[in-house]
Predict the 3D structure of the following.
Amino acid sequence: MKNKGNISLFVLLFFFLNLATAQAQLTAPGSAATANTAYPTFPETDNIFVFCAETEGVNAGSLQVQTKLEGTKTFLWEKYNPETAGFEFYSSESSDSLESTISSLENGGYRVTITQVETTEIHRAWVFNNWISATAEVIESDCESFRLNGSFLSSPMIYYDLADNAELEVFKNIQVEWKLGQTTIATVINPQIFDPPTSDTEYTFRVYDAFGCETNFTIIYESIVTKAQFSVDQQQGEAPLTVAFTNQSENADPGLYEWFFFRSLDDIKRESESTQQPIDSIMIVAYDQNPVYTYENSGSYMVKLVAKNTSEFHTCVDTFYLEDYIIVDTSFVAVPNVFTPNGDGTNDLFVVKYWSMKSIKISIFNRWGKRIHFYENNDVRGFEDTYTAAVWDGRLAGGRFASPGVYYYVVEGRGRDNEPRRKGGFFHLFRGKD
């Protein structure tokens, strides 16, 4: 009977021990994440609390145990020693409090035993101060690309099987990424960046793990490349056509611009058809920042800008062509067929329109073939739109008004395309009687 009573007492004590243990709660205030142990031999499972430490040597870990045991009790904290394969004294306190906290903890396993008379609560956990440090640099920088080179160190998180002291490591699943602003541009540690930016640019190397711990390292790429670009104020018009070029190049050295003004496309094609030799397609080369050029003759013209950036080890060059040709219109003449010099302010002058002409002569004849008026201009220039010339006001020599009727005109000249132009025809002069 006595043995049966002892057995019953043991079973009852074991029940209350397990009940009290279930009521205890061990937490880690401020921890970033929690994982579970994977002991190969020890049959139980403990919590792993991960704290994100700013740098190596910072002990950010803390543990807090809470109990429902009322009255005075003892909180015994112990730390696992892998050299002895056992828990050893860390700290102890007797208190009426329902909780106990230890802070600034180093990496390792901790056990707390709460004792009140014959009641005991036991709990274990592993604490890790998880830090990551990173650095980065720009290497292999040239005119075509550069390489971002990152490196990092991370604290190992080692724990031990409580049955056989086997060393185990927590898998952190460390990832890296390179960011430009908020955009991720690479997820490898040393990416090569092509088409480098033309301005100094900030890149961020981010290293992070599965527990939410991370570090960021920022570097500046110092640009050595340039981007050639320009715009024109007008790309089509009659000759002579004056075009202003606005340099919009990025990160180029002042004074190292080269503007290549090509000959007319038609002239290049015409010359290439009659020879097997290389054709010189360049008309002129200019070195201005923002050149202004006047196209005297009709044709289709291309322009190229070369910009340069010189650094200690490299001279980077970029070239920009217009997307389309500058079109200088071919010559043309337009003559009205009605003329009413009656002083009403409308159509009082015989106006001839022409564009892209270099020289022009206009003769007016009466019905008997006598030339009664002559107009000439041997250097037509200085206009932007279709040029108009008030050729005749309807008066004859001596100021007398010409009679109403049919007159004949002849226009002769040479265009800026170097083509001769001739146009002839009749027009009517209407006007009230003198």
Notes: Confidence is low (pLDDT under 50) at residues 1-23.
